[in-house]
Amino acid sequence: MEKVVIKATKRSVTGKQVRALRRAGELPGILYGFNMEPVNISMDAHDATLVLNRTTASSLINIELDGKEYPTLVREKQRNPIKNVFVHIDFQSVSLTEKIRAKVAVQLTGLSPAVKDFNAVLVTGFNELEVEGFPQDLPQRIVVDISGMLKIGDGIYVRDIVVSDKVKVLDDVNEMLVLATAPKAEVVEEVVPEVEAVEEGAEPEVIEKGKKEEELAEEEKK
């Protein structure tokens, strides 16, 4: 993979004043980790977004700050849930000479004959796997070819995954990644004219849906 660099500057603006920074086209973040104190940073929102949209949590991203480059992994991406734009990024500085653990996304590819010929339903078990290796050797994603799943009952397990000898998959080898199952038979329910909803003397169940706070969304409205 080509070298990925995001240019950043130190920022002193924090708290509610960060809103003005975002309106000016800047994306705030923090840089912390190996052999350094945490530093609040700011990046060009457009340029940083282009990089972040094509990289994953296991992609090595170099943060250029004060003339020095820090190899990092993205540890958290915060988005505005309404505008669907990044509002804050956490970068962890890493050592290129020390192995680390990271989550790597699993991507299915190919066409399964079990689906094509037998109308099988694919059930997935894992969307990501934990691997260990040097930061520069971590794969962006683990691609799993399902074209070898020929019939219902066929599955792909962690033990079947082939990765570079520079990284080690830490998940249980017997864990299932994807399984071809039989399609569910259509169930026709008999319509019952009268159904007693609640037993005599029983209290009706009340289900209360909690309200999710969207602090970032409210912050952007102010």
Structural commentary:
The protein has 222 residues and is mainly beta. The protein has 2 domains: 5-94, Ribosomal Protein L25, Chain P, CATH 2.40.240; 101-181, Ribosomal protein L25, C-terminal domain (RNA Polymerase Alpha Subunit, Chain A, domain 2, Beta Complex). 12% of the residues lie in helices and 38% in strands. It is built from 4 helices and 13 strands. The strands form 3 sheets. Strands 1-3-2-6-5-4 form a 6-stranded mixed barrel. The longest helix has 8 residues, at 45-52. Mean pLDDT is 86; it is low at 195-214.
List keywords for this structure.
222 residues, mainly beta, Ribosomal Protein L25, Chain P, RNA Polymerase Alpha Subunit, Chain A, domain 2, 6-stranded mixed beta barrel, 13 strands, 38% strand
End-to-end distance, in Å? 41 Å
| Secondary-structure element pattern, one letter each | EHEEHEEEEHEEEEEEH
Strand order of the largest sheet: 1-3-2-6-5-4
**Proportion of residues in extended strands:** 35-45%
How would a crystallographer describe the biggest sheet? 6 strands, mixed, barrel
Mean pLDDT figure? 86
CATH architectural designation of the largest domain: Beta Barrel
Query: How many individual helices?
Result: 4
Structural class computed from helices and strand pairing: mainly beta
Tally of domains: 2
